[in-house]
Amino acid sequence: MFFKQYSNADGTLSYFYGCGSKGSAVAVDVVAGDERWFLDAAQKAAVRIDFVIDTHVHADHLSGGKKLAELAGGLYCLHESDVGKVHFPILGLKDGEVLESGNVLTKVLHTPGHTADSICLLVSDLRRSADPWFVLTGDTLFVGGVGRPDLGGAPEEMAGRIFDSIHNKLLTLPDDLEIFPGHAAGSVCGAGLSGKPSSTMGFEKRWDPYLSMTDRDAFIRELTANIPEQPAEMARIVAANLGAAA
């Protein structure tokens, strides 16, 4: 298995991984303008990009996912709830679905809260073990924080959904599992984000203040009291990522 993390100046983190021996790769949360980096990386690794996944419809930056999928001949993927909302064809991913990329498996976890369509990706390398090796947590869980709950409106409701997603999906994962988030420090998609671009579930359970909260109402109060300013030009960015902008 190969794995690469690509960092942007605004704190956005993208990912490229897959099975070199079977020549199959996955690109996750590609930022517009970075498509060439992924194409070059695929060429160097002698792999095809079979799946291009956005962990949600982004509100802080333009996605390069659709364009990369077109250039690479892969499938552009979002959660199934986005089918009919976006103005172009996608592969709608279901909770619990597993994508195969040679010996690498990517299991979809629907984790709504930051947005209704948010997903995390649980990745295994069968050449090592069927057990998951790491999870890409998108904007649901960060190193030192969690996603903001206000981008879809109704912050209290969405904060509650983040709590449920964390407790029902992510906190059930092994402590030694590595986590790789969609953003690090510098992003407006969450408060209190660390500059470290990865962690483990066990470390975050001990030190992420939101993960130690077991009272749902207290979690909602705390998360909604610390919401950053909304991203600049958010409406235009979301419309463009949905394919609705001219």
UniProtKB/TrEMBL annotation:
All residue ranges annotated as the Metallo-beta-lactamase domain in the record: 11-183
Q: Does Metal-binding show up as a keyword for this record? A: yes
InterPro entries in the record: Metallo-B-lactamas, Mito_Persulfide_Diox, POD-like_MBL-fold, RibonucZ/Hydroxyglut_hydro
The stretch of residues making up the signal peptide is none
Q: Write out the GO MF terms.
A: metal ion binding; sulfur dioxygenase activity
Q: Which UniProt keywords apply?
A: Metal-binding
Q: Which GO terms describe its biological process?
A: glutathione metabolic process; hydrogen sulfide metabolic process
Q: What is this protein called?
A: Beta-lactamase domain protein
Native organism is Acidithiobacillus ferrivorans SS3
